[in-house]
Specification:
Layout lengths: L4 H15 L2 H5 L4 E6 L4 H8 L3 E6 L4 H7 L5 E7 H13 L2 E8 L10 E8 L1
Parallel strand pairs: 1-2, 1-3
Antiparallel strand pairs: 3-5, 4-5
């Protein structure tokens, strides 16, 4: 899928709305690992707005993403519910626990199937 300027602008609107929330403002420090899906403009825009040591693009497949996750301190992402539930089990098995989960509805595209989540070691 080719990203157009219009779809990136739509995704940028979501990233701006997400960044304005107090929960994200509290997490201003860099997150070690970001999970996103480059086929979804809102998810790609979220990843582009993050300062991170690592990125996992689920467009290459969920199995590739799972293999790339190896004992992170924290993981954050904007993904579909199905991807999020698959990743959550893998991350919990590595000792991470849910610290934030919200539905990330994009105001311009009307998508409501995306979730913004963060898991950290406790």
């Amino acid at each position: 899928m080719r990203l157009s300027r219009r779809s990136m602008l739509k995704g940028g609107a979501l990233a701006g709305a997400v960044a304005a929330t107090p929960a994200v403002a509290a997490m201003a420090k860099p997150v070690p690992l970001v999970v996103f899906d480059s086929r979804i403009p809102e998810s790609a825009a979220f990843a582009a707005s993050q300062r991170s040591a690592g990125m996992i693009d689920l467009a290459h497949g969920i199995a590739e993403g799972v293999r790339a996750i190896n004992l992170p301190q924290a993981v954050t992402g904007v993904t579909r519910w199905s991807d999020w539930t698959a990743l959550r089990g893998v991350l919990e098995a590595q000792g991470l626990r849910l610290s934030e989960e919200t539905r990330a509805a994009a105001p311009l595209s009307g998508r409501t199937h995306l979730f913004r989540w963060t898991m950290t070691l406790r």
